[in-house]
Amino acid sequence: MPVPVPRSFLWGAATSPHQVEGNNTASDLWAIENMPGSPLPERSGDACDHYHRWREDLDILRDLGLNAYRFGVEWARIEPVPGQISRAALDHYRRMIEGCLSRGITPVVTLHHFTSPAWFRHGGGWTGADGVKQFAAYARTVRPILDGVPWVVTINEPNMLAMVAARLDRDAPDLVAGALPPPDQQVASALIEAHHAARSSLGSIASGWTVANQTFQGVSVDEWAWPREDQFIDAARDDDFIGVQAYTRVVLGPDGPVPPSGRRTGNGWEFYPGALEAAVRHTASRVSVPILVTENGIATSDDADRQEYTGLALAGLGRAVADGIDVRGYLHWSLLDNYEWGSWAHTFGLVAVDRTTFRRTVKPSAHWYGALARTGELP
Length: 379
Hints:
Layout: E1 3-4, E2 10-14, H1 17-20, H2 28-34, H3 50-64, E3 68-72, H4 75-78, H5 87-102, E4 106-112, H6 118-122, H7 131-142, E5 151-156, H8 158-169, H9 185-202, E6 207-213, E7 216-218, H10 221-234, E8 242-246, E9 250-253, E10 256-257, H11 275-286, E11 291-295, H12 303-322, E12 327-333, E13 351-353, E14 360-362, H13 364-375, E15 377-378
Parallel strand pairs: 2-3, 2-12, 3-4, 4-5, 5-6, 6-8, 7-9, 8-11, 11-12
Antiparallel strand pairs: 1-15, 9-10, 13-14
Helix pairs in contact: 7-9, 8-9, 8-10, 11-12, 12-13
């Protein structure tokens, strides 16, 4: 049976600034992409030119029947050098927020989505002497433009940031290719402190952060989950909400993660739409705050697979909601086919983007999702 949701339920899609805006030249990742011998096979470049075409993209989202858009403000654009604030960049993001509101779209704004100013990384990043204070000051800088924003994400997937730091320490930055390491605990602790400091800077604005839920199954689950996921969920116990981000599962054998043997997505993950329901239930078992699904989707070149995966994931979400779990919305990853951290091959979007002309093509799965949103019911 379909599960009715309140009119306030968010049906939307998500992006991150570096992946869609283009020419984020002051960021740490831009520097890595463009350094001699870069480990990343492809560059972000102009990306989807969303920095200039956001109005068109909001119109697409609205016309599909969706009512929410999660996007990020880019710290490297707002503060390209320490203490130098770009009023033009702040005004750009203020216009985006106003553009959402004028279209009846609820803005969900992320302050940090993996990328930082290059100067922040060079100064030691999260564990630098002033790292936490610098992030809190950035949050204070952004606060005045957040009028009308009911959901602010401080940091996207801090557990992934800490695990990437651990792999970089071992000169092995590819998370997809190997087992997820335990995070660099010094970085993890600094991220938790920075999150709480940013929430303090935001004052009365409702805020939380998002966690990359990995749906651990098999043996030694607690041992694996605590450092990689649960400590970050638990850190949100006093937040206004928590973001759940789920794509697949990690099956653990006696020697660690077992490679998937069945159906896979375009980026090599197991096709496992049940990850979303499991992640929501696991998160609700640890913290009693509202849940917002801030990312869920599939890398595929077959749009029928996208519709199948999303339908099954939403059916699982419907079961969780029917059981009384407080879920406030679902934001599909992603609105656009975009730059997936070194590759353009892994297409997650509801909308295709021509890399030369930037022409947007709405996929059948987007129309299907929009029609479902209009019903006001989860499968």
